Every structure is written in structure tokens, then in C-alpha cells.
Amino acid sequence: MEDGEAVEAAAAELEKLQIEILHRISVIESTFLPQNSSAAPSSSLPVDENETVTRLSTILQSGGVNDFCFKRVAPDYYDWPLESRRNVLDASSVDHLCKSIVLVNTQASSNILDCSDRNNSKYYVVVVQYTARFNAEAVKQFLYSLNEGKIPKKRFNLRLAPEETSIKLTGFEHNAVTCIGMKTNIPVILDEAITKLKPDFFWLGGGEVDLKLGVRTSEFLEFVKPFIVPCS
């Protein structure tokens, strides 16, 4: 009789454990997979529920972004050609693969030291496609016009920020930079070409070198509110 009771107790404990596992799987799927699976990439690589994923997911969801997902990639991802990267992410095209780069205005006035004025910031994060060639002159002209010509054009000279500066401002290392959840509220400039991608779901860095973030363009625009500039 005691053996029978022990078996029943073990079976009950196993059932309880299975239910808990299924619940956790359900939570993870609802949090990290695209909400609209028919419009976004259909499959996802295993993603561990680590601090970065949890933190960025919380930031996105609190900002009204629900159609997004994270995917893990191999350590040598950046050694692959763009088509191979597209395949592993299940992106719609290589044009949907984007990157975030931190720029510094090397000719800003001496009193411009931070990002408190988004129209005339010391630093900007620019999101561009990997297939595009970034046009710094276009950004310079945009910022000059944005300030209605009140700041001399010579005061705008955008250059790639040193890696240590980028890490300090964003909190993300090289090849991991994303404009979501940065340590500093750096103004974001999005290349206009990204807004024209079909379908409107693009990929960018996810806060870790081997972590990528896919997001619905319309929701990204509403949340981040970037300057949209034809800069490629």
C-alpha cells in the first residue's frame, strides 16, 4: 500500500512539473515570438531568457511594440555573406538587414557636449541597411535645415564615434549596438529606405553580438520616433 501511495505521489509531482514547464514555454513564446506570425518571420532560433532579452522586451512592450522577436546567431555570424545572414534570420531580403551606428559631430560648438538637444546633438545613432552606403553629407544637410540655418553648416560634421565612446553611450559593444534600451537617450536617425521595405519588418542588433532583433517598422517608428532621413 505504501508503495502504491509513493507511486501516486510521484506521478502527481511529475504532472505538476509538466504543467509548470508548459506554462513557462507559453510565456516565453508569447513574449519573444512575433505576435503576427503570418506577417513576420515564421521560425525562431532558440533564445535564452537572459537579462538582455528580458530588459529589451520589457522596454519594447511598455512602448507599445508587440510585433518583434529575438534570434540567436552563431558566433561567426559576421563572417558570413549577407545572404547567409538573411537565411538564418529568415529575413525577407538582405535589404531587411540593418545596423545601428553611433556618430559624433566633431565640429559641434564647444558648449554642445551631450544629447540634450535632439536637433543639435553631439551624438546621433543612425540606422541604415547593410546593403546601403551611408551618406554623411545628407545627414549634415538635414541637421542644417532642421535648425533653420541658425547654426552654420560648418558646425555639422558627422563621423563614426570611437568604439569606446559608442560603448559608453549605448552600453552595447561593437556589433551588438541597438537603439533600444541605450544607456544614453541618443537621438535616432533612420534611413528613409528602411521605411519603404516590404514587408515592413526589419532586423537590427539586439544588444549582444550574437543576438538579433526583428521588429515591425510601423511600431518601431511610433515608439522610437526617429528622424527619417534619406541618407544612403
Describe the structure.
By secondary structure, the protein is of the alpha/beta class. It has helices spanning 2-32, 51-62, 82-89, 136-146, 163-170, 192-195, 217-224; strands at residues 68-72, 98-105, 123-129, 158-160, 188-191, 201-208, 211-216, 227-229. It is elongated and about 85 Å long. It starts with a helix and ends with a strand. The model is unreliable at 29-44 (pLDDT under 50).
Radius of gyration: 22 Å
Low-pLDDT residue spans: 29-44
Q: Sheet with the most strands?
A: 5 strands, mixed
How helical, in percent, are the residues? 25-40%
SSE sequence, one letter per element? HHEHEEHEHEHEEHE
In one word, what is the shape? elongated
Which properties best describe this structure?
7 helices, three-stranded antiparallel beta sheet, five-stranded mixed beta sheet, 232 residues, alpha/beta
Short summary:
With about 230 residues, the chain is of the alpha/beta class. The chain contains 7 helices and 8 strands; from the N terminus they run H-H-E-H-E-E-H-E-H-E-H-E-E-H-E. The protein has a 5-stranded mixed beta sheet with strand order 4-2-3-5-8.
